[in-house]
Structure formats: structure tokens, C-alpha cells
């Protein structure tokens, strides 16, 4: 339109028009606040649980004058937190605007929210300012211990070990608990004749399940465990369940140790009381990286077997993708199972099940369903073979992993398999 006006107006009038426009543009540019006139602050928790969303409160304030009407805002975060994320700002005072941005913590580690990008128009709408306000906020993403802090595990384990079920199962254990008066219905083999003679009344030994068992949490950190299931890496699901198991073992009076491996043995923390082991294991697991090498089950399990001098419950979090890997895994678990109680934990892939059960609508969909069914059948054959060897196999969906693992642990204690 301005070019058309310049064509129909005399040169002097067109020059005057362009001069007025330039003056307005310069005046508009002088009136618009720049990035240096604004401050930004982010409120964030000290730690974020992996796999959960974190909501950061954003406060933008003006050093002088009012805050400009922000037309768009984005948070510049690391890819593990979702990258550039849009959010909205609303004025709460002439010199302040507040908002909140939600980020998803998809991996463990220390990640940065480097800056906040803002966009606003000039007073006359002749310019648009895009400003980058540095924040340099660091978010520490740690293993998810939500079941621990919420008290879910305490309620489950204490009810099993010290509640009604514990009262019923007393007398079935192998560890002496206390002497009680003999009553009708009690096993006569429990009578302590020596103490009965001393007290001149029948007393019986009350037994309970043995405590101070040794539990080893063995985490496979090879490249297969980097694969995502339900929005989180397999190794992160395993770490979350391992920490829940550590807390439950502390309630049960057992000792817990940690062992991790990939192509070669890595961390080893000797078993210690569960309550003391929990902070140590949590710190070590929070710092565990994501490996991209293939796991060597033969070397790792042989190394672990050589370290253990006492019968233990070994919980192995691992995965396999082909029959060759599975064959080596089975052979080494069979050797380990001769002296220890083995629980093999692997995650079921919901996406694989969806592809297998979906109604195919094309040739490609049929091929995907056939491949998925073959993979599921091969996995089941391996798990069935492990079960026949006496190994407890736990294949479950990510959202039920912790509950299933704790139930298995409590069942092992009740049956005194260790």
C-alpha cells in the first residue's frame, strides 16, 4: 500500500510520507522495552522423579516501567526435559507477569533450563521483539521413589510381615521368637519340655520367619535396557523397582547389596541393612549412566557368583532380544541357581502386545503382527525354560512391576526359600 501511495503521490509528498514513517518507527523502537529491562526467575524443586512431570513457576519482572504484553513464551530446556516448551504468561501487577511451564523428566541426570524466550510487540505494533532471558537453572532428575515416600510400601510390607498374616504364620518359621503358654490346637512338637519343667506349666516355642537374609539386586545396564517402555527407559523402571525392593527389605530386616554390569562388571555394593543401604543405593543408582554396549551375561554372572560366599536371593533385572543371547543367559542363570534363589525380572512391552493383538488393515500390519507374535512366542519359551529350572520369572508391565516384585519377595520370605 505504501509503495502504491509512493507511485501516485508527488516525489516531495512520498518523501515526506517515508520520513514520517521512519520517525514513527524510530520512536516506536525507542519506546519498546528491551531484554535488559526484564528479569526472569524460575522456582523449581531440588529433585525431580524420573518419568514424572515437573511444573516450574516462571516470574518475569520489569526493572523500570510496566512489563510488555507478552505474545508468546517458551522455555529452553535440554532434550531430556522436552526441549523448547511453550507456556503462557499472565500479568499480576504492572511490573510483573507470572506463568508456569510443565516439563517431562524422561531420563535421570542433571539437566539445564538455559533460558526463557519471550516475544512481544512494540507500542505501535511496528516492531516485534524476541528476547532470550538466561536462567541457567539445573534440574536434578533422580530415580522415582514415589511408592516409598507415599507410604505404600510400608503399608503393604508391614501388613504382610507384622499384621494379621504374620500372626497366622507364626510357628512355621525356623527362627526362635519367644516362649508362649501351650494351648489346645498348638503343635505338640513345639513344647519346650525343659522350660515347662522349670515353670511347672506347658510352654511352647513360637517361631517366626528367619531375618537377615542377603539380597543382591543385579541390574543389567546394556543397550537393550536403554529401550523405552511406557515413556521411560527399561533401566529406569528397573532402578525404581530396585529401590522399592531395598526399602521393603529394610522393613523385613534383610540385607541388600547392589551389582550392575554391561559388557563387564561395574558397581558392587556389599549387602548391608536395608535402611542403611537405601540412601547409598539411591545415590549410586542416580549417578548410573546409560550404556550403549552389549551386555556380557557370562562374565557378569560368573563374577557375581565368585563374590557371593553365602546363599542369597538374587534379583536380576535384564532383557534379551534373540535366541543366542537367551541361550547364554539361561546357561549362566542355571549355574547361579544351584547355590542361590534367583528372581529374573523382565518388562513386557505394551506396544509389542498392541501390534500383536491389533486388527490388521494392510499387508504391512499383517507382517508386523506376525513378527510380534513370533517374538512373544520366543520370549515365552525362554521364560518357560527358566521356570522349569526353578528360577522365579517375573515378566510384567511397567506399571505393575514394583507391586509384583514386592509380592514375590514377601512370598519368598513366607516360604523361607532363602
TrEMBL record:
| SUPFAM superfamilies assigned to the protein according to its UniProt record, in alphabetical order | vWA-like
Q: Which organism is it from?
A: Halovulum marinum
Known InterPro entries for this protein? DUF58, vWFA_dom_sf
Q: Which PANTHER family match?
A: BLL2464 PROTEIN, SLR2013 PROTEIN
Span of domain DUF58: 181-351
By its UniProt entry, which Gene3D superfamilies does this protein fall under?
A: von Willebrand factor, type A domain
Q: What lineage is on file? A: Bacteria, Pseudomonadati, Pseudomonadota, Alphaproteobacteria, Rhodobacterales
The membrane spanning regions, by residue number, are: none
Signal peptide feature range = none
Pfam assignment, any one: DUF58
Q: What is this protein called?
A: DUF58 domain-containing protein
Amino acid at each position: 500500500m505504501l509503495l502504491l501511495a509512493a507511485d501516485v503521490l508527488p516525489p516531495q509528498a512520498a518523501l515526506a510520507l517515508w520520513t514520517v514513517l521512519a520517525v514513527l518507527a524510530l520512536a516506536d523502537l525507542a519506546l519498546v522495552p528491551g531484554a535488559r529491562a526484564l528479569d526472569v526467575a524460575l522456582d523449581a524443586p531440588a529433585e525431580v522423579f524420573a518419568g514424572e512431570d515437573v511444573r516450574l513457576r516462571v516470574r518475569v519482572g520489569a526493572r523500570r516501567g510496566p512489563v510488555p504484553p507478552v505474545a508468546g513464551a517458551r522455555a529452553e530446556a535440554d532434550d531430556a526435559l522436552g526441549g523448547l516448551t511453550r507456556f503462557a504468561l499472565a500479568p499480576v501487577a504492572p511490573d510483573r507477569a507470572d506463568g508456569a511451564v510443565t516439563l517431562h523428566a524422561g531420563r535421570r541426570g542433571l539437566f539445564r533450563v538455559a533460558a526463557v524466550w519471550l516475544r512481544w510487540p512494540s507500542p505501535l505494533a511496528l516492531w516485534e521483539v524476541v528476547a532470550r532471558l538466561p536462567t541457567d537453572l539445573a534440574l536434578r532428575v533422580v530415580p522415582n521413589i514415589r511408592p516409598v515416600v507415599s507410604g505404600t510400601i510400608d503399608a503393604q510390607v508391614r501388613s504382610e510381615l507384622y499384621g494379621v498374616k504374620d500372626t497366622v504364620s507364626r510357628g512355621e518359621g525356623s527362627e526362635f521368637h519367644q516362649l508362649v503358654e501351650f494351648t489346645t490346637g498348638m503343635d505338640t512338637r513345639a513344647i519346650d519340655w525343659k522350660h515347662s519343667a522349670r515353670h511347672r506349666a506347658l510352654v511352647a516355642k513360637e517361631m517366626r520367619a528367619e531375618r537377615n537374609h542377603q539380597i543382591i539386586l543385579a541390574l543389567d545396564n546394556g543397550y537393550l535396557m536403554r529401550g523405552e517402555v511406557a515413556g521411560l527407559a527399561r533401566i529406569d523402571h528397573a532402578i525404581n523397582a530396585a529401590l522399592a525392593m531395598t526399602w521393603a527389605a529394610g522393613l523385613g530386616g534383610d540385607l541388600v547389596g547392589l551389582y550392575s554390569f554391561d559388557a563387564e562388571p561395574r558397581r558392587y555394593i556389599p549387602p548391608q541393612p536395608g535402611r542403611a543401604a537405601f540412601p547409598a543405593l539411591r545415590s549410586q543408582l542416580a549417578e548410573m549412566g546409560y550404556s550403549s554396549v552389549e551386555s556380557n551375561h557370562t562374565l557378569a554372572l560368573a563374577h557375581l557368583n565368585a563374590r557371593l560366599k553365602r546363599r542369597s536371593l538374587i534379583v536380576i533385572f535384564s532383557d534379551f532380544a534373540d535366541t543366542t543371547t537367551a541361550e547364554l543367559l539361561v546357561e549362566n542363570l542355571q549355574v547361579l541357581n544351584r547355590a542361590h534363589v534367583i528372581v529374573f525380572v523382565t518388562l513386557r512391552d505394551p506396544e509389542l502386545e498392541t501390534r500383536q493383538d491389533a486388527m490388521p488393515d494392510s499387508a504391512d500390519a499383517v507382517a508386523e503382527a506376525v513378527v510380534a507374535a513370533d517374538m512373544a512366542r520366543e520370549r515365552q519359551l525362554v521364560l518357560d525354560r527358566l521356570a522349569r529350572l526353578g528360577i522365579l520369572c517375573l515378566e510384567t508391565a511397567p506399571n505393575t512391576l514394583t507391586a509384583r516384585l514386592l509380592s514375590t519377595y514377601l512370598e519368598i520370605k513366607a516360604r523361607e526359600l532363602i
